[in-house]
């Protein structure tokens, strides 16, 4: 989501990094940071206030007289990014997936969640994603098809409900109204003993009075515990502006930003909290029902700064696969004992985790590589690497250092590949294992944070 801003911020930091630091070149670097924010379509006022806070701290004596001023500056930008995204820079405990707690689901009785947003924002799909997440927590959920505006929405919700085995409450649109469907839907959910009811309300192509009136009526009649606004990240500042209108009408409790997988700028994600004051709860990361992630400001800020997001990757893996095996891999990484046998095992899992490109973006140092050449077929590369590792003996995988010229040639022949490719793999692996060890020991970012405090 933050591809371009990450590159630009890295440029700004490397220009700050060159030569001796003084107030003038820090200010110059800060100009580049500001430019990066604006090019990412961050709201103008938000960017201005952000830069004011960062610059004040960055040109202070504390930075200039410190041992590593450029690291301090990254630390300041990081802290301010976390605050901008609505987080606490000290937060280190992350919930692994979208949770009912984030949605404000109560422990007793029925929780009513009202979803709203413009047509095409991904509201109906997101209702399905939430129902899936709640089902994973074993919460009985009812979906209410109250989007009578878009004729296909009712059927779409019914299909999603069918896939998830979650009940969908619907009425004949010819003889009902959105308010009536919602009211009856909540009644029905209460009677059936459900714990959560999600109202998929109508959208419009634009914010208009009719829509707002309708939403306010539903709000009055159904008294939702949570009003969630669904916005399409790809619409940038338009998403932020309509969030203001919805918040004025409804007092939103949270925002879910969809299609972050297709958004290369990240302007809505960076501005929506600061402009509306409403927390960003989850992000949509794909069309399928598992494409929903918890939003963590600290983690997102690390991703923006190109620090990678190993944590999300590992958590994602933990959710889908055997926890023990992964813990084992994590422990080995931290101890520097992660060998090619482990790597090969992980590769099989990685293939199932999502596209190679999106995974690489989360690995520190590899993000840029994923952007390099869109024509490179990552999955093919992965198979190629897998073939080379398979041609090694288990002992060679454990101790790749012992692979000499003749062994290398044998492996290349076995894998139908070139000795130079074997060499490259061994070199890359060495670099990667070192980087992973650093990350697993939770180094860099935290050290930078400490340097600032
Ligand atoms: P609604 O009119 O707001 O109910 O929108 P829909 O739920 O029908 O979604 C509109 C389109 O956006 C559909 O094609 C969805 O598959 C797609 N969509 C929704 N969320 C995401 C997401 O997080 N990523 C991607 N890539 N597509 C999404």
TrEMBL record:
Enzyme class: hydrolase
Alphabetical UniProt keywords: Cytoplasm, GTP-binding, Hydrolase, Nucleotide-binding, Ribonucleoprotein, RNA-binding, Signal recognition particle
Basic and acidic residues bias: start-end ranges: 394-406
Record has Ribonucleoprotein as a keyword: yes
Record's subcellular location: Cytoplasm
Enzyme Commission no: 3.6.5.4
SUPFAM superfamilies: Domain of the SRP/SRP receptor G-proteins, P-loop containing nucleoside triphosphate hydrolases, Signal peptide-binding domain
Molecular-function annotations in GO: 7S RNA binding; GTP binding; GTPase activity
Residues that bind GTP: 117-124, 200-204, 258-261
Primary location group: cytoplasm
GO biological process: SRP-dependent cotranslational protein targeting to membrane
Pfam families listed in its UniProt record: SRP54, SRP54_N, SRP_SPB
Span list, region Disordered: 392-422
GO terms for cellular component: signal recognition particle
InterPro entries: AAA+_ATPase (IPR003593), P-loop_NTPase (IPR027417), Signal_recog_part_SRP54_M_sf (IPR036891), Signal_recog_particl_SRP54_hlx (IPR013822), Signal_recog_particle_SRP54_M (IPR004125), SRP (IPR004780), SRP/SRP_N (IPR036225), SRP54 (IPR022941)
Sequence ranges assigned to domain SRP54-type proteins GTP-binding in this UniProt record: 279-292
Catalytic activity, reaction form: GTP + H2O = GDP + phosphate + H(+)
Domain of life of the native organism: Bacteria
Function in brief: Involved in targeting and insertion of nascent membrane proteins into the cytoplasmic membrane. Binds to the hydrophobic signal sequence of the ribosome-nascent chain (RNC) as it emerges from the ribosomes. The SRP-RNC complex is then targeted to the cytoplasmic membrane where it interacts with the SRP receptor FtsY.
Oligomeric and partner information: Part of the signal recognition particle protein translocation system, which is composed of SRP and FtsY.
Family assignment from sequence similarity: Belongs to the GTP-binding SRP family. SRP54 subfamily.
Domain notes: Composed of three domains: the N-terminal N domain, which is responsible for interactions with the ribosome, the central G domain, which binds GTP, and the C-terminal M domain, which binds the RNA and the signal sequence of the RNC.
Name of the molecule in the record: Signal recognition particle protein
Native source organism of the sequence: Stratiformator vulcanicus
């Amino acid at each position: 989501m933050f591809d371009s801003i990450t590159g630009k911020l890295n440029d700004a930091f490397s220009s700050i990094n060159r030569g001796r630091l003084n107030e003038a070149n820090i200010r110059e670097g800060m100009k580049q940071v500001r430019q990066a924010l604006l090019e990412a379509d961050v709201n103008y006022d938000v960017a201005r206030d952000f830069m004011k806070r960062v610059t004040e701290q960055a040109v202070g004596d504390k930075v200039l007289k410190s041992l590593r001023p450029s690291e301090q500056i990254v630390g300041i930008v990081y802290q301010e990014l976390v605050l901008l995204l609505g987080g606490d820079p000290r937060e280190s405990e992350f919930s692994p997936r979208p949770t009912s707690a984030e949605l404000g689901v109560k422990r007793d009785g029925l929780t009513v969640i009202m979803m709203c947003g413009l047509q095409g924002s991904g509201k109906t799909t997101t209702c399905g994603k939430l129902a899936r997440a709640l089902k994973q927590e074993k919460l009985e959920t009812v979906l209410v098809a109250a989007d009578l505006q878009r004729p296909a929405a009712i059927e779409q919700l019914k299909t999603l409900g069918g896939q998830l085995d979650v009940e969908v409450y619907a009425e004949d649109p010819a003889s009902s109204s959105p308010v009536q469907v919602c009211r009856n839907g909540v009644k029905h959910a209460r009677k059936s003993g459900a714990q959560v009811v999600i109202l998929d309300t109508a959208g419009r192509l634009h914010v208009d009075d009719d829509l707002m009136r309708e939403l306010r009526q539903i709000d009055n009649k159904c008294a939702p515990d949570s009003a969630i606004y669904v916005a399409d990240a790809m619409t940038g500042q338009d998403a932020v502006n309509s969030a203001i209108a919805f918040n004025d009408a409804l007092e939103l409790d949270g925002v879910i930003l969809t299609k972050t997988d297709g958004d290369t700028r990240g302007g809505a994600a960076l501005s929506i909290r600061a402009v509306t004051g409403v927390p960003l709860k989850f992000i949509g990361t794909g069309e399928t029902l598992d494409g929903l992630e918890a939003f963590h400001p600290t983690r997102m800020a690390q991703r923006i700064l190109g620090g990678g997001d190993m944590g999300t990757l590992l958590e994602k893996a933990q959710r889908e696969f055997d926890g023990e095996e992964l813990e084992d891999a994590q422990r080995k990484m931290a101890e520097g004992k992660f060998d090619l046998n482990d790597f090969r095992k992980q590769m099989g899992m990685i293939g199932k985790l999502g596209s190679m490109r999106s995974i690489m973006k989360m690995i520190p140092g590899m993000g840029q590589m994923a952007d390099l050449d869109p024509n490179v077929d990552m999955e093919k590369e992965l198979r190629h690497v897998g073939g080379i590792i398979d041609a090694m003996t288990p002992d060679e995988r454990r101790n790749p250092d012992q692979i000499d010229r003749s062994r290398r040639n044998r492996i290349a022949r076995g894998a139908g590949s070139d000795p130079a490719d074997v060499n490259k793999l061994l070199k890359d692996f060495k670099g990667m294992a070192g980087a992973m060890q650093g990350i697993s020991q939770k180094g860099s970012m935290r050290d930078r944070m400490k340097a600032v405090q």
